[in-house]
Fold each of these.
Amino acid sequence: MSIALEKSWLDVLADEFEKPYMKSLKSFLTEEKANHQIYPPNKLIFNAFQHTPFDKVKVVILGQDPYHNVGQAHGLSFSVPEGIAIPPSLQNMYKELSNDIDGFTIPRHGNLTKWADQGVLLLNATLTVRAHQAGSHQKKGWEQFTDEAITKLSQLREGLVFILWGAYARKKMALIDTSKHCVITSAHPSPLSAHNGFFGSKPFSKANAYLISKGKTPIDWQV
C-alpha cells in the first residue's frame, strides 16, 4: 500500500501510520492483494484526501465502503468514474439536488470530483474492499484512521458542515464538536431508505446556507 497522502493531511495524520493498527492493516492489505482483486486501485485509495486538502475542507459527506464492482470505486464516497452506471444512492442524491438546488440538472455521469475540488471531502469510513464482497474490509483498521481524520477536522477547523446519512454515519456525530460545526443528518439515500426522510431533507441547500453564514463560498453542486 503506497501512502501518497496529500501534505496538509500528512501533517495532521502522520502519527497514525506508525501505530500498531495501521501496521496490521498494511499486512492485511498485502495478503488481500496477493489473493484477491481489491478496489479502488492503489493510487486512488487516498483520492478523497488528494482532492480535498485539510485546510480546504468545507463539507464532509461520509460513506461507508467503496463500491465493490468492476470500475466503480475511485476513492470518493458515492462517486463513480465517468462511463460507469450511476449507482442507485447517487441517483437519489441527484433527485434530491434537482428539488433542492435551483437550476440543478441531473447529470448523465456519477463523477463527483468537481465537488471534491471545491472542498467537499467525500470520505468513506473504509477505504478499500475486496471485489464483489461488500463490507469485506471493515473492522481491519480503516475506521480508526478515518475516525481520526474526522476528529482532527473537528478539533482543528471551524465552521465545517458534516453530512451524515443513515444510522452508520450518524454514529460519527460523537467525533464532532457540534458547538463549532454544522451537522446535517437524515435517512440514507439508498433506495431502501430514501423515502423515509432523505427526500425533502434539503441537505445541499442547508450546507450552502451555513457556509454563507460563515462568510465562505457555497458549493456549486452541479457536476
Note: DSSP finds eight helices and six strands in the chain.
Amino acid sequence: MAQGGVVVDRDQFSCSICLEVLKDPVTIPCGHSYCSACVQNYWDQDEYLGVFLCPQCRQSFSPRPVLARSTLLAKVVEKLRESGLQEAPELLSQSPAEADDVECDVCIGRKNKAVSSCLVCLASYCELHVLPHHQGAVFAKHKLVCASRNLQQTLCPRHSKLLEVYCRTDKLLICSLCLTDQHKGHDSVLVEAEVQQQQRQVSELKQQAQLWIQQREKEAQDVNQAIYALTCSSRGASEASDSTFAELTRTLEVKRFEVRELIKAQAAVAVSQAKQLLERIHKEVAEVKKKEAELDKLSQTDDTVLFLQRYQSLGSLAPAAPMPPFTFDPSPSFDPVVRAVSEFKGLLEEISQDGFVSVYERVKEVAIVTSQNPVQMSAVQPGPSGSSPQPQETAAAPLGLDQRPFGLFSPSLSPGAFNFTTGSKVSTGDRRRHMQRRVHPRRK
C-alpha cells in the first residue's frame, strides 16, 4: 500500500498468530507485537508449564510477562483504518507469479502475479501496484484490461501509438496518426464502437444458432419418431407377410394333396373299369370254351339222331348279352396331368412374379426422408456496417441423399430440405419391370 510516499507491507501490521491486521496490539519483552487476545490465549495453553515462549523467536519468559498496550502501534493501525486502505484487505494480498501467470512489471525481486494491464502505460500490475490507477486522478484516463502478455500488439507498428481506431474500409486496426496518412478519408470508427457493432452481430448470430439448433433438434426428434414408427411397421409387415406366405404355402400343400388324390382316384376308377371288362371277357371266353368242348365232343358222336338232338340244344356260340363295343388305349398315361400341373406352376409363377414386382415397388415407396429440391443455404455473411447479417442464397438444385448444402453452423441440410413421412411417394408414372415375365404354353 502507499501512504505519504512510503510503501508499507501489510505483513508488518499483521498478527503472526491470527494472520489478521493487529487488533489492540501489545508488545512482549522480545519486541514482537501481537493482538492482545491472541497472545493471551496462546500463553494460557502453556500455563501449566510455567514457561512462556514467543510464537516467533521462541524466546522463553518466566514468570509470565505483564502485557502492556503498544500505544504507538495502535495509533498507526488506527490511522491506516481511517485512511480506508484497511477496508479492502483483498487488494493488499499478494500471490507470487507462477509459470503461466503474467508478472507484475513494478515488483522488485520476486514478481507477484499481475491482475491488470494498462494500455497507456503498456505495463502489467499486481494488486498492490495497480492501486494508483484506481485512486490517482492522473491515471483516470488510463485504460485497464485483464493482465496480458501481448501488450505490444496493441501498438501501431509504424507510429508506436495505441491502436484505438478501426478502419472499416480496409478492415484494419489503426492509430490516430494513421487516419491522416494511409487511411485518410476512409470509413473509420473508434474501436469501442466497432466492437459494440460486431457484438450485436455476434448476438444475432447466436440467436440464429439457437433457432437453428432448436429446429435441428426438433427435426432429429421427428426423425427418431419416424424411425421408431417405421421399425414397428416393418416388424408388423414382416409378421403379416410371413403369415400370408405361410397360409399360401398351406393352400398349395392342400392343392398338391388334392391333385395327388385325384390322380389316385382316377387311376383307381380306370383300373376298376378295366378289371370289370377283363372279368367279363374272361367269363365269356370260359363260356365259349365250354361250348367249344361240347362241340368237339359232339363232332365225335356216330349216332345221327343223338347228334341232331344235341346240336339243337347247344344254340349259338355268342353270349346271351353281347358286350357293347369299346376302345382302349394300349399305353395310357397321366402325362397330360403332369403338363397341366406344370402349366399351373408356370401360371402361378407368372402371377407371383407380377405380384412380387408390385410388392417390391410398394416396399421401395416407403421412405422417411424425401427430397424437395430446396434452395441451398450458405454461410451467413455479416452485412455492411449498421446492417444485420444477410444469408446468401444459391440456385436451387436437386439434392440426393449423398449431397449436402453447406450451412452456417455445420455442413448439414438446410431447414425444410426434407419432409419426414412414412407414407408412399407420389406416383412415378410408367413403372419399369425389374424382371421379365415367363411365357408358358397353353393347352388348346
Note: DSSP finds seven helices and 17 strands in the chain.
Amino acid sequence: MAAVDISPKKDGGVLKEIIKEGIGEETPAAGCKVRVHYTGTLMDGTKFDSSKDRNEPFEFDLGKKSVIKAWDIGVATMKRGEVAILTCAPDYAYRAAGSPPRIPPNATLKFEIEMIDWKGADLSPDGDGSIEKFQIVTGTGHLTPNDGALVDVHLVGKYDGKVFDERDVQFNLGEGEDVGIIDGIEIALKSFKMGEKSRLKIKGKHAFKDVGETKFSIPPNADLEYVVELKNFEKASESWTMPGPERIKQVILFKEKGTSYFKEGKFGLAIKMYNKIVTAFEDSRDDEDGEVEAEAKDLRLSAYLNLALCYLKTNKNTEARNACTEALALSPDNEKALFRRGQANLVLSAPELAQQDFEAVLRVNPKNTAATSQLLACKKLHKEQLAKEKQIYANMFDKFALRDKQKEEEQLRGQPDVMRGVLGEWGQEERPGGRDPTAFEKENPNILMLNANGTGEFKNM
C-alpha cells in the first residue's frame, strides 16, 4: 500500500504505509495506554533503536506528548495487529537538535511499528482499571466539570452488547444517583471537556454493584459499557472562594438537600450533602465575624449529627462513631451525639464504651428512657461477653492441662525400668516389693528400693 500523508496540516510531516492490515475498526484514542513493538532507522537504513532487539514491547500514553509528535499522530490511526511504517519529518521528530549520538540534527526518521494492544485511560480511584475511557470526539477548551457542576449529557448504556438505557439527562455532578446515574459515569465526567464524547467500560463495583438493576434485568456485579457525550456544563462555585455570608447560604442549601434525600431513604446522597457542609468550613477565614462563625459551628454540628444518623441507617458504625466524636468536640454534652455514639459502640461490641455514653446521656437528661433501655442492653451484652471469655479461658486451660499430661506420659514411656519403678510410687502398680527385680536392679544392688510400707533404704552400703 502506498504511503499516505496523515499529518493534520497535510504538509508531508507524517507519511504512513500499511505493511499488514489490523483487526476490526477500532483505533486507540488520546489517553489510552498503547503497547507496541518498533524499529527505528535513519533514511540510509541505519538502525538506531528497536524494542524487538530487547524483546520488550514499548508502552506509552497516547496523546500526552510523552513520545515524538509523529507517533502521537500515527499510532492513533492503527488497529490491533496492524504493522505500518511511519516516515517522520524533522519537525515531527527530533527537529534541529536531533538526539545525539544516534540521531543527527534535522533527521527524517522511519519507524516500523506493530500495534500489539491498548487499554483505555484508567480513571478509577484505585487505579485498578475498573473505569476505562476511550475518547471518540475530543472536547474543546481546558475546563472540566467539578463536584456539584450542573451537567447536561447524552448517554447510551449497554449490557452484554444490548442497549438498556439511552437518554438526555441533566443533573448536579455528585447527585447522579437521584436520576439513575452510576458512580462510574460521575467519576469519568470529571475528566470530560466541553463537547467530548467517550466510550466508558465500567466494572460492576462502579456500576450497579452487588445489587444489580431489576428494571433493566442487569444482575449483580455486572460490567457495563456507556457512550457519554458532555453537551454542556456549568461549574459549581467553590465554597472556599466565597465570603462568609454566601458560604452560609450555600451550606444551608446542602443541608436542605441532605434532609430531602434522607426523607426519601437516599442515604448515600444525604451523606454526600452533609459531607459538603463539613468540607465547606475546613478553610474558614480568620477575618469572618462572630455571627458567621457561630452559624458555621451550628451547621457543622448539625452535619455531624445527621451524618451519624445516616451511617447508623447504613450499618457504617465506625463512621457513625467518628462523626459523633467530631460533634462532641463542638458540643461536649450533646445528647444526640452521646446517644448515637452509644448505639454505634453497642453494635461494634464495645458495651463498656457504650455504657459510658448512655450514662453520660442520663446525666444530661435523666428522663431519657431510651438511654435507660440501652444501658440495660449494654450490661446484658457485657455479662454475656464475660461468660464467653470465661468459657474460652476454661477451655484453653483444659487444653494446656491435657497437653502437659500427654507430655509427662510420653516422658515416662521413654525412661528406664528402674525410673518407672521408683516413679511408680505416684500411682503405678510397680513397687519392687510386688514384682521381681529388673536386670538393672540385679546389676546395681546399691539402688534405692522401696519396701512394703513405702519407706526407702539403701542396701549393701
Note: The chain is about 40% helix and 20% strand.
Amino acid sequence: MSNIAKNLVQGSRELIAFRIGDQEFCVNIMSVREIRGWTPATPMPHAPYYVLGVINLRGAVLPIVDLSMRLGMKAAEPTVRHVIIVAQVNTKVVGLLVDAVSDILTITDENIQPTPDVASEFERNFARGILAIEKRLICYIELDAIFPQSESEAA
C-alpha cells in the first residue's frame, strides 16, 4: 500500500500553516482557494473593524480580513512581504491577511492536542486544538467558527 493510501486510510488531513506575528496557526487546506501577494484594499464604510476593505480578484469583489485583528491581536501593518490567503468561509470567499505561509502539514487526529483550559471562550470557539510538530506549537483554527454566518451571530 502506498504512503498516500495509508494516510487516507488513517484519516489524515492536510493543513496550511501560516504566521501572524510570532505565532503560528493552521487551517484545513481544503478551504484554501489560492495564496496571493499583498494588494492594498479599498476601504468600505461601515465594515466590521477587522475588514481592511475589498480588492478586485479577477472581476469579483473580495473582502480582505486582517486575521490578526479578528483573532484579537494587534492590527497588521501590511507590507509587500504579507500574503492573502483566499479561502472559502461558510458560503463566502474572503481574503485573509497573514504575515507569511510557512508550511503544508499532513496530520492525523492523534497529532491534535486539546486547547488548554486557560484559553478564553472566544479561543475555544474557533481553536480545534494545538499541534506540537518539530518543536513548534501551531494553533489549528476553524475558519467557519471565526466568521459567523450573520452579524447577529457575531453579537
Note: The CA atoms of residues 54 and 60 lie 10 Å apart.
